[in-house]
C-alpha cells in the first residue's frame, strides 16, 4: 500500500513541477532571445557619435579663435543620451532576470531528477526512508517557494522590457509611443 501511494504522490509531484519547469524554460529561452535582439538593436546608440563630438570640438575651436564665449562640451555631446542609457539598462536587467529564471529552472529540473532517482534497489523500508530523506531535503530547501519565483521573475522581466521599449519608443517616435 505504501509503495503504491508513494508512487502516485511522486508521479503527481513530478508531473506538476516538471510541466511548470518546462514551460518556464521554454519561455525564458524565447524571451531572452527577444531581449537580446533589442539589446543588440539599441547597442550602437550607446556609442558616442564621433561626428557630434568633432562638431562640438570644432565649435569650441572657432569660438576660441573669434574670441566668443566658449560654451564647452556637455556630456550629452560626448556620450549617449541619458534616455538611451536608461532604456538599455532596463533591457539588460530584463535579460538578467530571464536568465536567472532559466538557471533556477534548470536547477529545479536537476532537483526533481535527483529526487526521482531513489530506484528499485534495496528493501521497501530502505527505499521509503531514502525517499523521505530526499523529500525532507526539498522541504528544507523551500523547493515549492523556489518554484513559485519563476513566474515572478519572468513577469518582472516582461515589465522591465515593456518599460524599456516604451522609453525607447519615446525617443524614436512619440506618437507611436503614446498609443
UniProtKB/TrEMBL annotation:
Entry keyword Transferase: no
Protein keywords: Membrane, Transmembrane, Transmembrane helix
Transmembrane stretches, start-end: 21-42, 83-107, 150-170
Coiled coil (UniProt feature): none
InterPro entries linked to this entry: DUF6535
Every DUF6535 domain range: 1-171
Pfam families reported in the protein's UniProt record: DUF6535
Record protein name field: DUF6535 domain-containing protein
Organism: Mycena rosella (Pink bonnet)
Species classification: Eukaryota, Fungi, Dikarya, Basidiomycota, Agaricomycotina
Amino acid at each position: 500500500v505504501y509503495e503504491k501511494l508513494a508512487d502516485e504522490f511522486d508521479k503527481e509531484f513530478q508531473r506538476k513541477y516538471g510541466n511548470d519547469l518546462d514551460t518556464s524554460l521554454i519561455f525564458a529561452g524565447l524571451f531572452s532571445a527577444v531581449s537580446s535582439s533589442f539589446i543588440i538593436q539599441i547597442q550602437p546608440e550607446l556609442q558616442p557619435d564621433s561626428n557630434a563630438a568633432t562638431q562640438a570640438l570644432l565649435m569650441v575651436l572657432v569660438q576660441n579663435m573669434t574670441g566668443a564665449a566658449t560654451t564647452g562640451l556637455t556630456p550629452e555631446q560626448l556620450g549617449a543620451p541619458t534616455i538611451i542609457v536608461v532604456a538599455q539598462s532596463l533591457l539588460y536587467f530584463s535579460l538578467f532576470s530571464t536568465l536567472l529564471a532559466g538557471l533556477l529552472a534548470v536547477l529545479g529540473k536537476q532537483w526533481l531528477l535527483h529526487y526521482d532517482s531513489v530506484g528499485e534497489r534495496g528493501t521497501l523500508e530502505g527505499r521509503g526512508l531514502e525517499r523521505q530523506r530526499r523529500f525532507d531535503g526539498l522541504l528544507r530547501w523551500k523547493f515549492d517557494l523556489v518554484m513559485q519565483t519563476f513566474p515572478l521573475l519572468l513577469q518582472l522581466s516582461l515589465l522591465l522590457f515593456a518599460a524599456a521599449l516604451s522609453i525607447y519608443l519615446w525617443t524614436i517616435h512619440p506618437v507611436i509611443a503614446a498609443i
